[in-house]
Amino acid sequence: MKTIGVIQVKGGAGRSTVATTLAGELSKQGKTVLIDCDMPQGTSASWFAVRQQSDVKQGQLFSQNLAADTAANHRELVAKVEQYKDVDYLVLDGPPRIAELTRAILVLADLCLVPVGASKAEIWATSDILSLIEEAKQVKPVKVRMLWTRYRPQTKLTQELTALVKQELGLAALDTSLGMRVSYMEALGDGLTAAELADPSAKAEVRSLIEEVKKLMRSI
C-alpha cells in the first residue's frame, strides 16, 4: 500500500481538489481509498457521494475500485489506515488547520503534498507546516512536495512568489502545477476529476501530476 497525504492549513488552497483528483485517477490503476479528515465539512466525502450518483446518471463506473471513509481524530485515522492496509493506494485529505490529524498524516504517509495557491497569504500560511514536517521526520522518513495550484506561469506575481517560496519555505516543489481553471471547480462539484472533463489543458496537468506522484512513490 502507498499512502499519500494532502495537507494545508490555509483553506481554499485546493487541498480537497488535489486529494479527490489523486483518488479518482489512482483508482483507475488500483484499489484506492480516500479518507476525509476534514470533518464535519467533508468536501472529499461529499465528492465521493456525488461520484457514486454519477455512476447511475451516466452509466459509467466512475467509483469502481474506489471507496471513501472519514476520520474525525488522529486515533480514528490510525485505525482506518490499518483497516485499509491491503489496498493499493490510500489518499488522506487533511484538515485546514494545525491539528493532531495533520501530524498523524505526516507520519502515516509515504508522500505528502502541500498545495499552495499563487498568493503570498498562502505561502505565509504554509510556513506554519514546516515545524510539523521536521517533527514527523524525527519519527520516520517522509517525502514532502509543494504543489502549485491556481498557477499562472510567466507572470510577474508568479515569479515573485517562486522566489518567496525558496526564501520562506525551502520546500521542494513538484514539476507539475495545476493552473487556474474552471475545470477543477466543476469537477469537484460533479464528483469527477478534471481529467474526466473536456478541458485538454486540465487533462494534461492531471496526467502529469499522477505520473510524477507515481514516480516519487516508486522510490519509496
UniProtKB/TrEMBL annotation:
SUPFAM superfamilies: P-loop containing nucleoside triphosphate hydrolases. Keywords: Plasmid. Signal peptide: none annotated. It holds the Pfam family MipZ. This is Partitioning protein ParA. The lineage of its organism: Bacteria, Pseudomonadati, Pseudomonadota, Betaproteobacteria, Burkholderiales.
